[in-house]
Amino acid sequence: MTDPWVEEGRQGPSRNLLALDRAHVWHPYTSMTAPVLTRLVTGASGARLTVGDREVVDGMSSWWSAIHGYRHPVLDEAVRRQVSDFSHVMFGGLTHEPAVRLAERLVSLAPAGLEHVFLADSGSVSVEVALKMAVQHQRGTGRPGRSRMLTVRGGYHGDTAGCMAVCDPDGGMHAMWAGLLPEHVFAPRPPAPGGDVDGWATAFADLAEQHADELAGIIVEPLLQGAGGMWVYDPACLRVMRDVADEHGLVLVFDEIATGFGRTGMLWAADAAGVSPDVLCVGKALTGGYLTLAAALCTAEVAAGISASDSGVLMHGPTYMGNPLACSVALASLDVLRSSDWSATVAGISAGLATGLEPARALAGVRDVRVLGAVGVVQLDHPVDTAAATEAALDLGVWLRPFRDLVYTMPPYVCSDDEVTAITRAVVAAAEVG
Questions:
Q1: What is the helix, strand, coil percentage profile of the chain, to 5?
Q2: Which residues are catalytic?
Q3: Residue 330 burial class via C-beta count within 10 angstroms: exposed 0-12, middle 13-18, buried 19 and up
Q4: 156 among the known binding-site residues?
């Protein structure tokens, strides 16, 4: 009988690697004592991965980051060019051109008013920094009692401690940490487009009023909640949040780590409502999936408040902050995005997802099908059978990673029409068996 742990690569070296992986490597959201099946990737190009002895379309963009696909010549060259100069240097007391140019570029692309850039080494870290910014700003403006955040149900902002505290406390992935994390204030999940925005707005405003003296800021994922449920909500809610933040002197933080750089059909999800936050978190697609890098951008007003706080400085400094390799490839990724007709590309993917996922509505056990930009979601009325759904997708030549009650896709922007069609067929097949 074939050992399922080595089925994807039966030659000696592959077999040994998978056995070692099973024995020693702890993968995300898995048990070490009862690990799930992993598959060996031996190559990648364009929108495709080489998994074992077969080539499959990556329907996940490597957790939403590889928007330009794999082995992109412009991005490859950016890394080679920078590594020939230097790969890393500490950012305390030193600087370098890739970091300066990247900060300049991000400011030019960001919603209006965001002038200052703190480079972080992951999306979660950028959220941690944003939370610190909000609290330090309040201290610097004479309101040291304001240390809690207002957010909404269904959110997800990362797996580090501060981030977990502003994720959904009950239905999210971090409920087991209740009692160990700071307790923040949670408003109802925003309504879907066309829903009762006025009713939600009243509840949101009332909650902010009730807790105003203890709130430092508001943090949300604009327009699309990611790992908390892939929920799409009405853009008018973003204007409500902006108005509430202004009324009570709160720092408005938009976590665009998943939604930024065109994923929703706009460069920023905030653009859907014409709203600018006080702090913007970006990551994932920033480097095109090549290296880990994120950033927290803030307004001059927020920066002034932080400077007026008791420390006088922003109390954060990652070892790999402003890594030159990551900054260089991020600049290249933004160049590729800017030089492409990304808006039309995402619109084409969106149309393909909408058409291709429509048959899923007729499947037993499907609660909802929704598409926003280059995001396609099939929501089930039960937890997905991840193993069965993954196999069904692989049988059709597509890599998917379902979770909770969701079979979804965020394709690379470089997918052809045929590849988008293949992805939608795989999502429908995965939903049918999942």
A1: 40, 20, 40
A2: 29, 156, 255, 284
A3: buried
A4: yes
What does the chain come to in residues?
434
| Residue corresponding to tokens 């996940």 | 60
Is residue 284 annotated as involved in ligand binding? Answer: yes
Q: Is 255 annotated as a binding residue?
A: yes
417 burial level (CB within 10 Å; 0-12, 13-18, 19+): exposed
CA distance 309 to 147: 13
Beta bridge partners of 215: 148
Question: Residues 210, 216, 220, CA angle at the centre, nearest 5°?
Answer: 90
Quick check: helix, strand or coil at residue 332? helix
Kindly write down the DSSP assignment for every residue of 334-371, as one continuous string: HHHHHHTTHHHHHHHHHHHHHHHHGGGGGSTTEEEEEE
* Token pair 């930009």: residue: 373
Q: How many CB atoms lie within 10 A of CB 401?
A: 17
- Residue 326: which of 281, 267, 297, 286 has the closest Cα? 286
Per-residue model confidence as pLDDT tens digits over 12-64: 667 799 999 999 999 998 999 988 899 999 999 999 999 988 999 999 999 99
Q: State how far the Cα of 284 lies from the Cα of 261, in Å rounded to an integer.
A: 9
Q: Give the pLDDT score at 174.
A: 67
Query: In the chain, what are the domains?
Result: 13-71+341-433 (3.90.1150.10), 74-339 (3.40.640.10)
318 is in an annotated binding site: yes
Instruction: Render pLDDT for 322-367 as a digit per residue (tens, 0 to 9).
Output: 999 999 999 999 999 999 999 999 999 999 999 999 999 999 999 9
d(CA 53, CA 60): 20
- Would you call 159 helix, strand, or coil by DSSP? coil
**In sequence order, what DSSP letters do the residues of 223-254 get, joined into one string?**
SEE-TTT-EE--THHHHHHHHHHHHHTPEEEE
Note the pLDDT of residue 11.
52
Cβ neighbours of 1 (radius 10 Å): 3
